[in-house]
Write a structure and sequence with these properties.
Elements (H helix, E strand, L loop, with lengths): L4 E6 L12 H9 L3 E5 L17 H16 L5 E5 L5 H12 L3 E5 L20 H5 L20 E6 L7 H10 L2 E4 H7 L1 H13 L5 E6 L21 H13 L4 E7 L10 H13 L2
Parallel strand pairs: 1-2, 1-3, 3-8, 4-5, 4-7, 5-6, 7-8
This protein binds manganese (II) ion (MN).
Manganese (II) ion binds next to loops.
């Protein structure tokens, strides 16, 4: 079975809530496996300015540039543990640099498809997926190669409808990304939705990058995230998704597990789920 190189990406520079930067170390300490841990500079004071629509952009770029270098130089497939979702800019672009023409499956309750023009908060973890399709390149100056083709990019688990997301939805529709909602998963089942997703990303591809944001899970089950969204998927559905992904292991060139925030967790519920997912994926 394929083993991943475990990379901890301890940054919460992309989000106003603190804590996700602590996640990777907590997880990696429990796993007790060889790993590489990158942590954000402890002296950084995150931007608190409400009018700042590029919060911590320089600091984030510096962190991601370093992460990108580490993953690009790693021969093995990488399992990158976040950190907020902005770390996936580095992990997935490093992966497409190594493998070219990859597809992308983004499992998340949010679209992460804002641009610098449409973000109302300036929290940059709301922008990474748009960046991976070639928008927001100020977030990826360290990368000179190809971006992910939007027609081979799929979001699964979206449900943050109550947010002011009109512009974001407009962005993602215009680009031609396929989006499946949490309701789609509940109505049609994991297998059917993932079969379709793999058809979209998988044909004539060198493989794909999978990015799993823990906030796709219901906050009653996994409260330890920075921006929880109610009515998420349950434990069995998580299990079914991981089993499905394991059945396609050869196609998956790199994997992220992001947004674990130990400061918001209750009784280590989210930590246990994160550890289970990693143990299943990396066995
Ligand atoms: Mn996300």
């Amino acid at each position: 079975m394929k083993k991943y190189t475990l990379i901890g990406a301890g940054s919460d520079l992309g989000v106003h809530v603190d804590g996700a930067k602590l996640g990777p170390k907590v997880i990696l300490d429990k796993l007790n496996k060889e790993n590489i841990l990158l942590e954000q500079d402890k002296n950084i004071k995150k931007s608190q300015d409400k009018n700042d629509l590029r919060k911590n952009l320089d600091e984030l770029n510096k962190f991601n540039k370093e992460l990108y270098k580490i993953i690009k130089n790693e021969d093995n497939s990488c399992l990158t543990i976040g950190g907020d979702h902005s770390i996936s800019i580095a992990s997935s672009l490093a992966s497409i640099e190594k493998h070219d023409n990859l597809g992308l499956i983004w499992i998340d309750s949010h679209l992460d498809y804002n641009t610098f023009k449409t973000t109302i908060t300036g929290n940059l973890h709301g922008l990474p997926l748009a960046c991976l399709n070639g928008l927001n390149q100020e977030l990826s100056k360290f990368h000179e190669g190809n971006y992910f083709d939007p027609r081979k990019t799929v979001v699964i688990g979206y449900r943050a409808f109550e947010e002011n997301a009109t512009q974001e939805i407009e962005n993602i529709k215009t680009m031609g990304v396929t989006v499946y909602t949490t309701n789609d998963l509940k109505e049609f089942g994991i297998k059917r939705i993932f079969d379709e997703a793999f058809k979209i990303v998988g044909n004539k591809t060198n493989g794909l990058h999978v990015s799993f944001d823990l906030d796709v899970i219901d906050p009653h089950i996994a409260p330890g995230v920075s921006v929880p969204e109610r009515d998420g998927i349950n434990k069995n559905e998580v299990k079914e998704i991981i089993n499905y992904l394991n059945s396609k292991k050869d196609l998956i060139k790199s994997f992220d597990l992001v947004e674990y925030n130990p400061l918001n967790d209750k009784d280590d519920k989210t930590l246990k789920i994160a550890l289970d997912i990693i143990k299943e994926i990396d066995k």
